[in-house]
Specification:
The protein is built from eight helices and five strands; from the N terminus they run ααβαβαβαββααα.
Length: about 220
């Protein structure tokens, strides 16, 4: 019976250990909840910062915002209208970076502001399509931009879809944008042109470096044709 107090101590220590584990789990749960809360608050802030929500635009600043959008229309070679649905901040930033490398910019604003800005520009043809959850892609490289948008739309599983585009005063359908995306980019075209130009020059350089007897044989062969 003398061992009983010792056994009670063991039981008590086990219970204390369990309580301590429970205490730690509760603390971790609270810490996780706080982390999620802070993340959500950060995302909320990013959304307000990244998206030009009309509520955050003071009425006195609306003319300034409209003027900025109009300037983007006027400085662009082409404009694409896309529908975005449930895109995260990370996904939006990823698309922005890809478009930036293609000499383009991704802009989200209220359709009411976009409709006012597009008036009296060469892209007024897209005005009827500015409805719903739309975003604007201002492009200075039409084929490169079309490639990025179309590829992203294919991979995004419906989060972004191409509505239409505008180029040189003409309306481009979604099918037109897809066809544009399949054209060679400017870099690819330049590479092909350089290859075509350099090929005869390379052949001539090789010929000139060859021995005189070889050149004579080549010229003789051409004369017999």
């Amino acid at each position: 019976m003398r061992s009983l107090p010792f056994s009670i101590n063991i039981i008590e220590s086990i219970e204390d250990h369990r309580r301590f584990e429970l205490f730690l789990k509760l603390n971790y749960a609270v810490a996780d909840w706080l982390s999620y809360f802070l993340i959500l608050q950060s995302i909320k802030f990013d959304i307000l910062y990244l998206y030009n929500v009309e509520k955050t635009v003071d009425r006195s600043k609306k003319p300034e915002v409209i003027a900025k959008i109009k300037q983007s229309f006027e400085e662009s070679e082409a404009v694409f209208i896309v529908n975005q649905n449930k895109m995260t901040v990370v996904e939006t930033e990823s698309l922005r970076k890809q478009l930036k490398r293609a000499s383009s910019s991704y802009f989200v604003c209220k359709n009411t502001l976009a409709r006012l800005a597009v008036k009296d520009t060469s892209f007024e043809c897209v005005l009827p399509h500015l409805e719903g959850q739309t975003a604007l892609v201002f492009s200075k490289g039409i084929t490169d931009s079309a490639k990025v948008i179309q590829e992203y739309a294919t991979k995004s599983e419906g989060k972004i879809t191409v509505i239409c585009g505008g180029y040189n005063g003409n309306l481009l359908s979604a099918a037109d944008v897809k066809a544009l995306s399949q054209l060679p980019s400017m870099d690819e075209l330049r590479a092909k042109i350089i290859a075509v130009i350099q090929t005869p020059a390379q052949r001539m350089a090789t010929l000139l470096q060859a021995p005189a007897s070889h050149i004579a044989r080549v010229l003789s062969a051409y004369s017999k044709k």
